[in-house]
Structures are given as structure tokens and as C-alpha cells.
Amino acid sequence: MSPVSPTVRQRFHTSPLRLSAVGVTALALTWAAPTPRSVSQLYGAQLFWATAQAAQSEFASRIAATDAARYRKFIEKRVVAPGVTFRRARAKARQAMSASDARAAIDHYADAVALNREDPTAWLGLAQALEAITNPASNQEKYNLRVNAGGAAYRAYELATRTGMKARALAIVGRSLRSRSQFRPAINAFKASLDLLETPDVRAAYASLRAEKGFRIVNYDVEADAVRPRVCVRFSEALAKRNVDFAKFFSVNGRDPAAVRAEGRQICLDGFTHGERYAVTVRAGLPSEIGETLLKTAPLTVYVRDRSASVRFTGRNYVLPRTGQQGIPLVTVNTDRVALQMYRIGDRSIARAVLDGSFNQQLSRYATQELRDKFGAAVWSGTLDVRRDLNKDVTTAVSVSEALPTIKPGVYAMTARAEGEKTRNWSPRATQWFVISDLGVTALKGQDGIHAMVRSLETAKPVAGATVDL
User: Fold this and answer.
1) Which of 20, 329, 360, 418 has the maximum number of C-beta atoms within 10 A of its C-beta?
2) Phi, psi (5° rounding) for residue 202?
3) What H or E segment, with its residue span, contains residue 336?
């Protein structure tokens, strides 16, 4: 925010002719309100003051409190023309509002507030005048008007002692927050206003915003790729945490759900079957942590599709002996065939692969090309026919010895893709890293150093004459 230039201040103070109401308002709006991009900068030096002030009020909003703190600080720097008194400025402001001249009213109310910063009627009048501008010159001015109106109204709310004045101030705060898509604090402001004074216009604003942006169902997900599918209903706010039986707020095909689990902002239901349709009902009254309940009963039509074709390996690390190995376990879902590729990393490239971050990671198509070009070579590719059992996991052993009749010791990576599986070039594919060797190395660290023991994986006997590089 740019400060008022000394030249403008001096001219404004010494000249008997004051700047026009429009000119002063434009300056005030430009210097008083932040741009949308700089809103986050408001939570710096003023945050402590805003938090302390908000804590004293029944209604508290960090955004509104920060707007009020910033606008108050700006008003404190305002230079009022000689001879202008608080009563005179406030009287002129009221006359301007009666004449529907909101811009002139802003100028006079700003003088009144500068002369008496603790008068709630002046702050509320300033907020009402700012809100009354219906023909802003630009989008920036429109945004500034909303921010400043909310800030002035929040300051009036803090200072006011009369219930009606507090209620009117909170209504302006709510409209200011709503205009900036701060829906939750806006709902709270409208509710606090209604708790003080019931008015039709505020009640209508609260009901409309509460129905559209209050505690509600946001979406629901069907976790159909799980072995036991479930349906998770997501809400806009965190759910009530204590002594709530959420099961009574749900039914599945007219019956109680098999199991209900609340997790933060969502509730997940178990007991579904692939390939079936269900009528899920979420009943009104379901409670949230913020004290609101679900306004309307929501019927959901849910279809649990069959699991997508997929493939995965059962582990990240695997050591295979050169002889006698039974194969690498591969788990498939809803597919008859799997495309496999195998890569070998040369001895001199293992360290590079580890440092590069490729080793022991799930590889995409691009990553396998890089692995092949930088660290090793593609040694085999082919397909494997597997058994399909609808929607169930099927485990098949991939025999490395059949794919590679002549097996060299070393580090290998095998990737798998199910036929019909939808993958992108940059998406990770099922990857199994494994080591083929007849040498099993065990290292132990003791007080006298590191002890390395080498045994045959085939016979489990110690290997004599082995060379170990550290």
C-alpha cells in the first residue's frame, strides 16, 4: 500500500478548498484496500492485533478482523481540514446519505472516524456508505469497496454496545465476505447477526448461502478396484467426532449398512458387491463438527463396476538363486494376458542407477527407456497367459529361467502391464527389481569392524575364495 504523498497532504491541509468527494474516495479506496493477490500479505504485522480484537467478540473472523485493522490504520493517517468537527462531519455525512450521495458520505464519514476513532455510529455509517456505491468505476474499486465496507463494519461491531447496531454491522460483514467467496465466515456472520436481531433480508441471505455453501454433501466415490468395494461420501466440513452413531443416518437398499466408518470429512460404507446397483440414502440431521447438520435427505444412486484390469508384484525386493528358483509372484485382476519386459543393469552401472534414483522404483515407459539407454539393456520381452477369475486377485509365478535360458548374475528389473490396462507413458508400471546370484552376502558391524560372510544360495555353505568389494 502506497503512503499518501507529502505534497498531497500539505496541499490538502493548507488549502481552503478541499478535494472533491470523488477524488478523496478514490484515494482512500486505492490506498486502503489490498489487491486480491496481496490478501495473504495482510496477515503480518496486524495479525496479533486482529486476533486479540477478535477474541473479545462473540463473532470472530480473522479475515474481517484484519480488514478492520488495516482500514483503521489507514484512517488514523487521514488529515482533516481545519475547523471540521466530529459532529459537523457526521451530520454532513448523514445529509449526503439522505440525498443518495454515497461518495460524499464516504468522505464525511472518513473525517468523522478520523476525529473520533472509537465511535461505532461513524464506523457503521462509513460501512453503509461504502456498501451503497452501486456504480464502481472499475473492478478494482468494486473489490476495494467490498473490503473496506467489511472492515469498517467489523470495527463498528467491535465498538458497538447496542444489539441492533451490532446486528446491522455483522450483516454488512457477511455480505462483504460472501462477495469475496469467503462462504464459511460469511455464513457465521449472518448467523451471528440473526442471533442478535431477526430481520427478513438477513434471514433470506443466510438461508440461501447456508443451503448452497453450508454443511453439505460434496461428492461420493466408489472404490470399485478394491477387493472389497466401498462407497465414500464426502462432506464440505469435518464431521462431529464424539458420541455419534453415523450408521443411523444411512441406508443401503432400504437396510442398515454393513459397516460405517467416519474419516475426517468423509464417511465410508462397506458391504458392496461388484457389478451391482444400490440406492444409498443419507438422512438429514447428520452432524458436523461446526455445529451444522445436513439440511436435506440425499438419495444417491450407486453402481459398483467390475474391477479394472491391473497387475502388480507382491514385493519390492527379491533375490533369486541362479538355480532352483520357482519364479516371481505376479498378481493380476480381470485380465487374461500380461505383457512383460526385463532389463539387466551392468555391474558398473549399479552405483549410477542408485544415485540417479531409478533403482528400486516403479518405472514408467519413459523411465524404462532411460534405464535401457543409460544403465543397462533390455534382455527379454514377451507375454504371459494368466487365469482370469472375475474381480478376484490371481497370483501367477513368472519363471525367469524360462524367459532367460542363460542367466547372468546381476541386477534386473521386470515391468508388467495387463492387457486392457489403461496406462500413460509417464504413469508408473508394475515393476519388480530382483537380483540373480548364487552368492548371499551378510554383513555385520562390530567393535572391531565390519564382518562379511558369503554363502551359496543353493547349498547355504560358505564360499571360499570370494572377492568382496566395499
Assistant:
1) 418
2) -70, -40
3) none
Cα 231–chain centre separation: 21
b (16+ CB within 10 A) / e for 141-157: bebbbbbbbbbbbbbbb
- pLDDT tens-place string over residues 212-251: 999 999 999 999 999 999 999 999 999 998 889 999 999 9
CA gyration radius, the chain: 35
Q: Is the pTM of this model over 0.85?
A: no
Residues 305/276, Cβ–Cβ less than 8 Å: no
DSSP 372: I
d(CA 184, CA 177): 9
**Which three cell numbers mark 112?**
468523522
Numbers of helices and strands, H then E, in the chain? 14, 17
* CA-closest candidate to residue 156, choices 176, 141, 172: 172
Sign of the four-CA dihedral 287, 290, 295, 296: negative
State how far the Cα of 277 lies from the Cα of 259, in Å rounded to an integer. Answer: 18
- How many residues does this entry show for the chain? 470
Q: Which value, to the nearest 10 degrees, does the dihedral of the CA atoms of residues 7, 10, 14, 15 take?
A: 30
Query: What DSSP string describes 111-145?
Result: HHHHH-TT-HHHHHHHHHHHHH--S-SSHHHHHHH
